[in-house]
């Protein structure tokens, strides 16, 4: 049996929030459907932030409603706070992703509260979700941003990452994501931290959320995989950027991530060749946005034997 690896599209949230052009809702729906047709079964479709803050994501409700009609698709959304969680609960999303920063300085500049206060906020969100019947409630995940370095503080202490991961697991997180928000991570640190956190919080799944800001995205993904991680965030064409590094690339490239794992014999369920369709939709909608990826440029090698098509 091939090892199953889940790859979640986050470009509709993480990618689009960092481009200033507004993509029409119909285009996002076409993007989503084309990825669904390619076998993508995890999509973070938007963020429940106030539309005034991020007009690019003002159509979150419409996207979620549409996504929920696609059988087998795990529909998730980012929630910044309890108000966002209430919107997610009302719509019936499958997963809600709360985010806090491990770096105190980053958390303060983002949400003007300490990391411990944000952990308290997370507890309240978990409580809110648990007031819904167990079989109806969404899964509530917690993302730990700046887990591998921070533009404000530089180093982020690995024991602190571990301590916070344990606290949010105890608070009731259904999943945890360790995020290299600004692309400071390197494979040795990624391997160390994932190994420890996975052992600490099992059976809670630990996801990887990596940005390819400095070109180590896939190396980091491989290090996390070898440490036991089986869930990876990625964005189509690496759409997005880094708010602290103008001109830098975004999340790890979805197509290349699928390629690496399928080439290794893992089963992602995704047909890479069919990812050309959503990429064309995205390129047409955002002709000025940089799209990345080696597979889109070079094509698949002739010795590539994907799991998805064998199944
Ligand atoms: Zn991100």
Overall SS class: alpha/beta
Largest sheet: 8 strands, parallel
CATH class: Alpha Beta
Q: Which architecture per CATH?
A: Alpha-Beta Barrel
Helical content band: 40-55%
Uncertain ranges = none
Shape: globular
Total DSSP E strands: 8
Mean pLDDT: 95
Taking all Cα atoms into account, the compactness measure Rg is: 18 Å
Could you give a short description of this structure?
This protein has 311 residues and is α/β, with parallel strands linked by helices. It has a single domain, classed as TIM Barrel (Alpha-Beta Barrel), CATH 3.20.20.
Give a written overview of the molecule:
The chain is α/β, with parallel strands linked by helices and 311 residues long. The protein has a single domain, classed as Aldolase class I (TIM Barrel). 41% of the residues lie in helices and 14% in strands. It is built from 13 helices and eight strands. The chain has an eight-stranded parallel beta sheet with strand order 1-8-7-6-5-4-3-2. Helix 7 (158-170) links the parallel strand 5 and strand 6 (175-180). The structure holds zinc ion (ZN). Zinc ion is lined by residues 14, 179, 181, 209, 211, 251.
């Amino acid at each position: 049996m091939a090892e199953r690896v889940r790859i979640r599209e986050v470009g509709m949230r993480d990618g689009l929030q960092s481009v200033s052009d507004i993509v029409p809702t119909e285009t996002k729906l076409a993007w989503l459907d084309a990825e669904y047709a390619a076998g993508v079964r995890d999509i973070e479709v938007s963020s429940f932030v106030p539309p005034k803050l991020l007009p690019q994501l003002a159509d979150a409700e419409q996207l979620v409603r549409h996504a929920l009609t696609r059988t087998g698709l795990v529909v998730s959304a980012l929630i910044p706070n309890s108000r966002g969680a209430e919107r997610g609960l009302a719509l019936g999303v499958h997963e809600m992703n709360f985010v806090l920063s491990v770096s105190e300085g980053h958390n303060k500049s983002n949400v003007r509260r300490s990391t411990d206060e944000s952990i308290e906020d997370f507890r309240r969100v978990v409580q809110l979700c648990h007031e819904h019947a167990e079989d109806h409630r969404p899964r509530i995940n917690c993302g730990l941003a700046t887990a591998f370095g921070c533009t404000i503080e530089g180093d982020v202490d690995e024991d602190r990452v571990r301590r916070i991961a344990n606290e949010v697991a105890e608070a009731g997180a259904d999943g945890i994501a360790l995020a290299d928000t600004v692309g400071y991570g390197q494979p040795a640190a990624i391997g160390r931290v994932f190994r420890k956190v996975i052992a600490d919080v099992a059976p809670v799944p630990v996801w990887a959320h990596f940005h390819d800001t400095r070109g180590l995205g896939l190396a980091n993904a491989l290090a996390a995989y070898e440490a036991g991680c089986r869930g990876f965030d990625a964005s189509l064409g690496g759409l997005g950027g880094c708010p602290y590094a103008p001109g830098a690339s975004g999340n790890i490239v979805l197509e290349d991530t699928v390629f690496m794992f399928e080439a290794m014999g893992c089963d992602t369920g995704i047909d890479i060749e069919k990812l050309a369709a959503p990429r064309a939709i995205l390129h047409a909608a955002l002709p000025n946005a940089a799209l990345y990826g080696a597979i889109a440029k070079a094509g698949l090698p002739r010795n590539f034997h994907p799991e998805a098509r064998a199944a």
